[in-house]
C-alpha cells in the first residue's frame, strides 16, 4: 500500500483541490428540482476520477476503510457471524462508492456511509449530515418496542420538522431486527436511522435504498392479517345461497319418526326358579 509521505506534494495538493471542488459542486445537486443536475453530475464524476488516482486511493482512502473515523463495510477480512471470512473490497469498488457518496453530499469520513454488497448506503450519521445541509430542523420522538418477538422490534417514530417555512409532522412505524445481544440503544439507533431516511425521502423524493439487512425485517402484513382473522369470516369458495337452499330442503324433507321400543316380556316360572338357584 502506498504511503502518503511517499507521494509528491504537488500530487497530493492537486488531488485535494479536485476533491474539494467536486464536493462543493455536488452541493448543487442536492437542490430539489435542479434541472441541470445531470449535466453537473457528469463533470463531478470526471473530476473525482481524476482526483482519486490509484496512488491517492492507496495512500488516503483505503486506510479509512473499516474504521470509525472513515467508513465501515461488510468485508472486514475477519470472520463474520457465519464464520465466513470475506476479503477486503478492492480499490475500484471503494472508489466507485466514494464517488456515489460525494454525489449525494456525503464524505468518506465520520461513518457517513457504509459499503454493503459492493454498494454505498447512507448511515444514520449520513442522513443527519444530509438533513443538516438542507437546513431541515426536526425532532424525532421514538416510542417503545411494541413487538413481543425476540427477532425484531417495532417502534413508532413521530417526526416534527420545519423546512422552508413549512411545519409538519408524521409518524413512521419502523421494524428493526434484534437478537439476544441487541441493546436498547442499538435498537433505537436503527429506528432513528429509518426515521431520518424517511424524512429525507419525504422532502427530496430521493431514495438511496436500505442495505442494512441486519436491521431490516420484512413483515408480510397480509399474512399477519389473514392469520389474525382466521376462522372469523365466511368460508371462501362456497356458494352461501346454495348452502342455504340445501339447508331448506333438508328441513322440508320428512324426518324418520322414532320407533317404539319393545316392551319387556314377563319371565316364566322355570326362568325365575333358575335365577334364584344361580344366586
Features:
279 residues, alpha+beta, 3-stranded mixed β-sheet, 3-stranded antiparallel β-sheet, 9 helices, 42% helix, disordered C terminus
Give a short overview.
With 279 residues, this protein is α+β, with helices and mostly antiparallel strands. 42% of the residues lie in helices and 14% in strands.
Q: Could you explain how this protein is built, in words?
A:
It is a single chain. The protein is α+β, with helices and mostly antiparallel strands and 279 residues long. It is built from 9 helices and 6 strands, in the order H-H-H-E-H-E-E-H-E-E-E-H-H-H-H. Helix 1 packs antiparallel against helix 2 and helix 5 (124-134) packs parallel to helix 6. The longest helix is centred in the last third of the chain and has 21 residues, at 184-204.
N-to-C span: 111 Å
The global form is flat
Work out the strand percent.
Answer: 5-15%
How big is the Rg?
36 Å
Write the layout of secondary structure elements.
Layout: H1 9-26, H2 37-51, H3 54-61, E1 72-73, H4 91-103, E2 113-116, E3 119-122, H5 124-134, E4 137-142, E5 152-163, E6 166-177, H6 184-204, H7 221-228, H8 240-252, H9 269-278
Parallel strand pairs: 1-2
Antiparallel strand pairs: 2-3, 4-5, 5-6
Helix pairs in contact: 1-2, 5-6
Amino acid at each position: 500500500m502506498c504511503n502518503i509521505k511517499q507521494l509528491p506534494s504537488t500530487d497530493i495538493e492537486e488531488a485535494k483541490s479536485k476533491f474539494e471542488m467536486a464536493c462543493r459542486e455536488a452541493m448543487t445537486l442536492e437542490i430539489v428540482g435542479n434541472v441541470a443536475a445531470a449535466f453537473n453530475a457528469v463533470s463531478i464524476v470526471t473530476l473525482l476520477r481524476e482526483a482519486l488516482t490509484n496512488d491517492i486511493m492507496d495512500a488516503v482512502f483505503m486506510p479509512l476503510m473499516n474504521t470509525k473515523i472513515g467508513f465501515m463495510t461488510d468485508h472486514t477480512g475477519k470472520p463474520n457471524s457465519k464464520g465466513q471470512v470475506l476479503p477486503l473490497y478492492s480499490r475500484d469498488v471503494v472508489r466507485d462508492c466514494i464517488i456515489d457518496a460525494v454525489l449525494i453530499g456525503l464524505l468518506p469520513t465520520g461513518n457517513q456511509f457504509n459499503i454493503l454488497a459492493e454498494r454505498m448506503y447512507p448511515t444514520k450519521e449520513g442522513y443527519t449530515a444530509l438533513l443538516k445541509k438542507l437546513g431541515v430542523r426536526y425532532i424525532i420522538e421514538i416510542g417503545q418496542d411494541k413487538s413481543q418477538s425476540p427477532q425484531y422490534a417495532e417502534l413508532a417514530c413521530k417526526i416534527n420538522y420545519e423546512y422552508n417555512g413549512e411545519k409538519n409532522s408524521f409518524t413512521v412505524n419502523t421494524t428493526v431486527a434484534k437478537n439476544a445481544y441487541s441493546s436498547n440503544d442499538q435498537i433505537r439507533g436503527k429506528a432513528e436511522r429509518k426515521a431520518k431516511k424517511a424524512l429525507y425521502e419525504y422532502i427530496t423524493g430521493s431514495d438511496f435504498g436500505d442495505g442494512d439487512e441486519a436491521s431490516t425485517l420484512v413483515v408480510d402484513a397480509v399474512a399477519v392479517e389473514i392469520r389474525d382473522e382466521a376462522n372469523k369470516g365466511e368460508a371462501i369458495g362456497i356458494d352461501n345461497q346454495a348452502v342455504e337452499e340445501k339447508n331448506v330442503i333438508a328441513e322440508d324433507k320428512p324426518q324418520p319418526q322414532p320407533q317404539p321400543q319393545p316392551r319387556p316380556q314377563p319371565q316364566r316360572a322355570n326362568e325365575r326358579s333358575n335365577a334364584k338357584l344361580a344366586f
